[in-house]
Design a protein that fits this description.
The complex is a heterodimer. By secondary structure, chain A is an alpha+beta fold. Chain A is built from four helices and eleven strands; from the N terminus they run ααβαββββββββαββ. In chain A, the strands form three sheets. Chain A has a five-stranded antiparallel β-sheet with strand order 4-8-7-5-6, with no helix packed on it. Chain A has a three-stranded antiparallel β-sheet with strand order 1-10-11. Chain A has a three-stranded antiparallel β-sheet with strand order 2-3-9. In chain A, a hairpin with a 5-residue loop joins strand 5 and strand 6. Chain A starts with a helix and ends in a 9-residue tail after the last strand. Chain B is mostly helical. Chain B starts with a helix and ends in a 17-residue tail after the last helix. Chain B: InterPro entries: DUF2157 (IPR018677). Chain B: Keywords: Membrane, Transmembrane, Transmembrane helix.
């Protein structure tokens, strides 16, 4: 092999290489779809609630921006005595369902914790650190909506929290399975 | 020679007796009408049909079942690729490469749409990096300029998305474009692709500086690293084409400094820590000089004048005058090089640069008229002297080497202003 480019563009190799590339692309798209399907089929389902946010920001093109109640965690939930959370750090949020089946954060760990029965672990990233709390993102902040229903969700999300059903795959990937409007104003939780 | 030119000027040649009517007909026959317009019609027609199909699908996209959506995407993806390969085999490279490029675009669209169906998109960029990888691989296999441009564009788009939507820089994307397409450029330094590649990389470098919240002057370290790569390129034109975008960026910056440098308001945004900045830029300069030395291109060394870190000077008159002097010196260096190489295009560029510097000096500097007058007198005398010296030298060189194979000197109309 004299040089990479001549190797690639050799006419004898062109056809098999091209077929390989096309097949790889098709498989890749199928893989993305498969990962999405498997996450909901094999994953653990948790319910999270959103906090109402600035309505101008909520509907953004063909997706709705979501902000979760667990997106901001008080510093008391940080479970690492050695060091404080830092920006861009990857963390693991231990979730436990409450009496209304909505999950809340019981701890934020720098390393994956062992989940008890009923509990789930959600991957997140620290986006900001304040004095008494820190902000997280989960890659679940966008929900692509079927055409037309975005406005309805926006209206509902402005007045009441939305209920978001999230599937967490055993390998850590998470995706939104469903976004529901809460039927009536929820009781304030402690 | 274009047929149109022959058609318009031919009769005059016949009238002047340069060629006979018979010869004119022969010449015309040599450049037949191109059937381009005719070939374009079916292409336009199929584009319209395609757009109509696309609209039908887009209007009903949300209502279609997932499997059908997936099948539609993969079908059009493989269809575009297969059609591209077919037309390449038929000996129609333009259409073939165009369709393969369409397939590449459809691959990206498929990744994005599939992620949307399954609510996976948002912050995950690994999917989009695969898009860049596919572009690089296809460019390698087909060596088509269109695919190279498309890949550089896709890299810039993915990076912009990462920075804008996610607030993070995708180093994988940057490495893929710089390494993958950089290697391609190294082996096949085509002029247009080189400039496009450099522009795409500069765009990514700018995004990196924005994400890091670094002083904007750090931008010139990666920018000049691209420039230095051009110095090492064995193929002179390809190397020079890669150097144009970084040079334009450096010139615009220096020009802005000359225009707005009189006030010190920008100083805090511009001044990085002195030693690290000069160290990094110096290292790149050393690399560039070594390249120029290895390839014997010391004539372009004065490009680096534009990188003089004048912004460390206190704002106000010292900075304004220093940047003006640099602008004049740079314009002068371009003029000298143009004269030496007898390159009329370079000469025009040099003249434009010179006029631009003069305009800044005239309109921006709040000097007393006497100062201005002295400054311009000095500049004018310098330029006249330079012009006299260069003409003298040219004449000497021509007289010394009056050999027949030397091309005749260009008309005196290319003398500098």
């Amino acid at each position: 092999m004299r040089d990479l480019l001549t190797w690639f563009s050799d006419p004898a190799r062109r056809r098999p290489l091209f077929r390989f590339l096309v097949a790889a692309q098709v498989l890749y798209v199928l893989g993305v779809a498969g990962a999405g399907y498997a996450t909901s089929a094999l994953g653990q389902s948790v319910i999270l609630t959103t906090t109402p946010i600035d309505p101008r920001d909520l509907l953004y093109g063909d997706f709705v921006r979501l902000r979760y109640t667990i997106s901001e965690a008080p510093m008391a939930l940080w479970r690492d005595a050695a060091s404080a959370p830092s920006r861009r750090q990857a963390v693991f949020v231990l979730l436990a369902p409450g009496p209304d089946s909505v999950s809340t954060a019981v701890g934020v760990y720098p390393k994956a914790p062992k989940a008890g029965p009923n509990q789930a672990v959600l991957r997140g990233w620290v986006t900001n650190v304040y004095r008494k709390s820190f902000a997280l993102r989960f890659n679940l902040e966008r929900y692509y909506v079927p055409e037309g229903s975005g406005l309805r969700l926006e209206k509902a999300g402005r007045q009441r929290p939305l209920k978001v059903r999230v599937s967490i795959a055993p390998w850590g990937q998470a995706r939104i399975a469903k976004v529901e409007e809460t039927p009536k104003a929820p009781k304030p939780r402690p | 020679m274009s047929r149109k030119f022959l058609e318009t000027d031919g009769p005059a040649w016949v009238a002047e007796g340069l060629i006979t009517e018979e010869q004119r007909q022969k010449l015309l026959a040599r450049y037949p009408h191109q059937a381009q317009a005719l070939g374009l019609l079916p292409l336009l027609g199929s584009v319209l049909v395609g757009l109509s199909a696309l609209s039908v699908v887009a209007a009903n996209w949300q209502a279609l079942p997932d499997v059908l959506r997936l099948a539609l995407m993969l079908g059009s993806l493989t269809g575009a690729y297969a059609a591209g390969a077919y037309f390449l085999r038929r000996g129609n490279p333009d259409l073939g490469h165009g369709l393969i490029g369409l397939g590449l675009i459809l691959f990206g669209a498929s990744i994005i749409l599939t992620s949307q169906i399954y609510q996976l998109v948002g912050y995950d960029v690994s999917g989009l990096v695969a898009w860049v990888v596919a572009g690089v691989a296809l460019s390698y296999v087909y060596g088509s300029r269109l695919l190279v441009l498309l890949t550089v564009l896709i890299g810039a788009a993915v990076q912009t998305y990462c920075v804008q939507a996610l607030g993070s820089f995708s180093y994988a994307t940057a490495l893929m474009v710089a390494g993958g397409m950089g290697y391609y450029w190294w082996r096949r330094p085509d002029a247009v692709s080189s400039t496009v590649l450099a522009t795409g990389l500069l765009w990514q470098a700018g995004l990196l500086i924005a994400v890091l919240h670094a002083k904007i002057t750090w931008f010139f370290v990666p920018a000049m690293a691209i420039y230095a790569a051009g110095d090492w390129q064995p193929h002179r034109v390809g190397g020079r084409s890669l150097q144009v975008p970084p040079l334009v960026a450096a010139y615009l910056f220096m020009f802005g400094l000359a225009t707005f440098g009189e006030t010190d308001t920008y100083a805090n945004v511009l001044r990085p820590p002195l030693l690290p900045y000069l160290g990094a830029l110096g290292a790149v300069l050393a690399l560039s000089v070594a390249g120029k030395r290895a390839r014997g291109r010391f004539d372009t060394l004065l490009d680096w004048l534009l990188l003089l870190p004048g912004f460390y000077l206190p704002g106000g008159l010292p900075l304004a005058v220093a940047t003006l002097v640099v602008l004049y010196a740079h314009a002068g260096s371009v003029l000298v090089r143009a004269h030496r190489q007898e390159d009329p295009n370079q000469l025009t560029i040099g003249a434009i640069l010179f006029v631009a510097a003069t305009m800044v000096a005239y309109f921006k500097l709040t000097w007393a008229f006497l100062d201005k007058s002295l400054f311009f007198l000095l500049g004018g005398v310098l330029l006249l002297g330079l012009s006299w010296y260069l003409r003298r030298r040219n004449a000497q060189v021509l007289a010394a080497s009056a050999t027949p194979e030397r091309p005749s000197p260009p008309a005196e109309s290319t003398s500098n202003p």
